[in-house]
TrEMBL record:
This is DHS-like NAD/FAD-binding domain-containing protein. CDD domains: SIRT5_Af1_CobB (cd01412). The active site is at residue 138. InterPro entries: DHS-like_NAD/FAD-binding_dom, NAD-dep_sirtuin_deacylases, Sirtuin, Sirtuin_cat_small_dom_sf, Sirtuin_class_III, Ssirtuin_cat_dom. Residues 15-325 form the Deacetylase sirtuin-type domain. Belongs to the sirtuin family. Class I subfamily. One of its GO terms (cellular component) is nucleus. Keywords: Metal-binding, NAD, Transferase, Zinc. It holds the Pfam family SIR2.
Amino acid sequence: MASTAARPPLPPRAPIVPPEDLESFQQHLNKSTRILALLGAGLSASSGLPTFRGAGGLWRTHEATQLATPEAFGRDPGLVWQFYSYRRHKALQAKPNPAHYALAELARKKDGFMTLSQNVDGLSPRAGHPASQLKLLHGSLFDVKCSDFFCKYTESANYTDPIVPALEIPTDESDPTTISALEARAELDISDENVALPELRISDLPRCPLCKKGLLRPGVVWFGEMLPTGVINDIEKWMSDSAKIDLIMVIGTSARVYPAAGYVDSARAKGARVAVVNMDRNDAPARGLYNGDWFFEGDAAKIVPEILKSVIGEITEMPDAAVEA
Ligand code: APR
């Protein structure tokens, strides 16, 4: 007869965040009425989207940050469109993760919670984050506008992928006898510099339907450009609505890009305690952490739902808010 030897119990799993930090954070969160969040690319990392700096910050041989400039677009609009078309495609394939849903739920639970996102990937809106409590500091991959200074054409929620046929990601159909039909259609990874980019002519790129002269460009804020005036005004109004801010959560951002990173100081000046969620302990906000701040080290997708639980409970993933492909 087979014996069933008792298995040794599994070792207890280490908590995601130290219990004493979790408790003091949640006590503060529960009584906070004016809360800010500053979000960055690390929030979407576990949805499979690369960050800008550090690992994943290179696209082919180019620093991602070097392609995000008006000068790069002026020099080589085809290359810049290939980069953004790839990012649009990847963002559409990605899904919001539990942290996006948790922040959206916190916004529904607390009227005085405002989120400032540097992310252009559309995942917070798709997680159902209320639009009135979400300011997109750096625009959206799914907005497009005319690059001609004198033309004011803009278009939002453009999910056409690819935006023009010439930007279709090529597939590997090199040897259909040895690869299955499905694999033969597998997309090539054009972020890999060893994969040849398709030839592009300027006439292949998206053109403004209004002035018919300018090229369309992604509706994101590039280095050296102003943040959208409406967004800045809304944030300034929110900031000045009350003399105090209780808390700012700085999630998945290297907090190096201004003016976005400056909101941490503005919140602190109004009394906010700072809670950082980041994989990298070196990525605290520029002026460091003070007594009474928190640093939660690890994956935002796991930590954010955990630390917000005292207000939002267990999060259930909701259906992805519709993206008409
Ligand atoms: N969970 C939490 N943090 C993470 C994770 C993760 N799973 N993965 C990476 N991070 C952290 C990194 O340690 C880093 O601090 O996310 C941060 C990402 O930093 P950046 O790549 O600099 O991205 P971000 O701060 O959003 O950049 C700001 O710069 O290039 C411009 O306009 C672009 O909006 C962008 C802005």
